[in-house]
């Protein structure tokens, strides 16, 4: 609203002011459209597995005596798979709505603000994945590297390299403020995607390094995040050598329910929400997230980056 001076002399009476209320209708309209789209998307995502489940359950109820044992088992497995899909969808929706209700807080997300050793967190997560069947059976190679992560003085002269530091369990000095559980979740979502969308025999590499972030690198960011970005940040990268994401899709992949290939994503158990959860977690921690083709020329391989302000 804006207070306007009286229109002419005593237009409405002695000392009268006219209150002009200007609503930003375009912005409101945009938000309303986004909300409607979201509700429509959620309904659609829920309806698909639900109608599959209902179909099989109805068939089983109506004709379970005449269905051969083997077919019955197949039906039950399909019901199980689609129930799991509903479950992950609801889990992701709940996480997203919780994250969205938290205020951006550069010093860490929501109520949890602990000092997190990112080097340790990454090694822990990568170690966990090394125990997974896909990696144990040699279908994927998983590597992690910490580049120039030592405290500034330690990277000069004869000091051991950062990866040596990390492997020997020494302090790699990659501290951020925030919620370790959320940061673990973000990293896992990125590694899960690399596992989901790259063929057997691929290499997935997680790396972290400290960099001096450019000031105001992203004008769309809140002032707090920009001010913090002028300090040192940790840049985390999850890279794979899979088929990659087409250049025209890259700017959209962090949107809710955006998928390059819907069928592929669903078949892999994707909800279309993984990367928006990552984006929210990173932004709540005052960081930035972006994606690039690993090989920009051939459009091959995917690299997802995020930064976090150092504690
Ligand atoms: P989903 O649950 O479908 O994986 P995400 O939000 O995690 O949803 O990812 C959005 C889309 O981005 C995916 O459906 C997929 O098409 C694409 N994508 C994400 N990560 C990769 C990757 N590492 N390689 C190729 N495509 C990817």
UniProtKB/TrEMBL annotation:
<keyword id="KW-0902">Two-component regulatory system</keyword>
<feature type="domain" description="Histidine kinase">
    <location>
        <begin position="41"/>
        <end position="311"/>
    </location>
</feature>
<keyword id="KW-1003">Cell membrane</keyword>
<dbReference type="GO" id="GO:0016036">
    <property type="term" value="P:cellular response to phosphate starvation"/>
</dbReference>
<keyword id="KW-0418">Kinase</keyword>
<dbReference type="GO" id="GO:0000155">
    <property type="term" value="F:phosphorelay sensor kinase activity"/>
</dbReference>
<dbReference type="GO" id="GO:0004721">
    <property type="term" value="F:phosphoprotein phosphatase activity"/>
</dbReference>
<keyword id="KW-0547">Nucleotide-binding</keyword>
<keyword id="KW-0597">Phosphoprotein</keyword>
<keyword id="KW-0067">ATP-binding</keyword>
<dbReference type="GO" id="GO:0005886">
    <property type="term" value="C:plasma membrane"/>
</dbReference>
<dbReference type="GO" id="GO:0005524">
    <property type="term" value="F:ATP binding"/>
</dbReference>
<protein>
    <recommendedName>
        <fullName>histidine kinase</fullName>
        <ecNumber>2.7.13.3</ecNumber>
    </recommendedName>
</protein>
<keyword id="KW-0472">Membrane</keyword>
<keyword id="KW-0808">Transferase</keyword>
């Amino acid at each position: 609203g804006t207070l306007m001076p009286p229109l002419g002399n005593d237009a409405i009476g002695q000392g009268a002011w006219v209150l002009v209320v200007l609503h930003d209708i375009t912005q409101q309209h945009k938000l309303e459209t986004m909300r409607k789209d979201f509700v429509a998307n959620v309904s659609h995502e829920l309806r698909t597995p639900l109608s599959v489940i209902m179909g099989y359950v109805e068939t089983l109820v109506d004709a379970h005596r005449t269905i051969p044992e083997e077919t019955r088992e197949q039906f039950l497995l399909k019901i199980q798979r689609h129930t799991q899909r509903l479950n992950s969808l609801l889990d992701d929706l709940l996480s997203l709505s919780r994250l969205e209700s938290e205020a951006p807080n550069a010093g860490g997300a929501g109520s949890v603000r602990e000092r997190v050793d990112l080097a340790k967190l990454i090694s822990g997560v990568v170690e966990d994945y090394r125990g997974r069947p896909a990696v144990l059976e040699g279908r994927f190679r998983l590597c992690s590297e910490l580049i120039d992560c030592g405290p500034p003085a330690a990277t000069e002269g004869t000091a051991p390299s950062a990866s040596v530091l990390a492997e020997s369990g020494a302090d790699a000095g990659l501290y951020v403020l925030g919620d370790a559980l959320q940061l673990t979740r973000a990293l896992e979502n990125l590694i899960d995607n690399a596992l989901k969308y790259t063929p057997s025999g691929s290499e997935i590499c997680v790396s972290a390094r400290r960099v001096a972030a450019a000031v105001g690198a992203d004008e769309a960011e809140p002032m707090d995040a920009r001010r913090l970005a002028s300090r040192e940040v940790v840049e985390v990268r999850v890279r794979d050598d899979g088929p990659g994401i087409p250049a025209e899709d890259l700017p959209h992949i962090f949107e809710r329910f955006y998928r390059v290939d819907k069928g592929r994503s669903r078949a892999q158990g994707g909800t279309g929400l993984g990367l928006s959860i990552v984006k929210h977690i990173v932004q709540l921690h005052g960081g930035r997230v972006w994606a690039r083709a690993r090989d920009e020329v051939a459009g091959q391989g995917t690299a997802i980056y995020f930064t976090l302000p150092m504690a």
